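Our consortium's second objective concerns turning raw sequence data into structural hypotheses that experimental partners can test. To show how far this objective has progressed, the report includes one record in full. It was chosen at random from the queue rather than selected for favorable results. The single chain below, 55 residues long, was entered without modification.
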Amino acid sequence: MPLITLLAEQYVQLRYGFVAALELALLAVGIKAENATCAGVGGVLLIGPAVTAGP
């Protein structure tokens, strides 16, 4: 499972940038720790780079 998370974070970093990778890490930590606030903030912040990125 950690390998899948690492690959997902690397893909997001290449596609959307370093900030999006940090937001994905925040989301993953929030889910792992069962912290709804941390996961929610990471999820909401991750929407921005996904929406603004071009093809």
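The partners drew two points from this record. The two ends are 29 Å apart (CA to CA). The mean pLDDT is 82. Both points have been shared with the crystallography group to help prioritize constructs.
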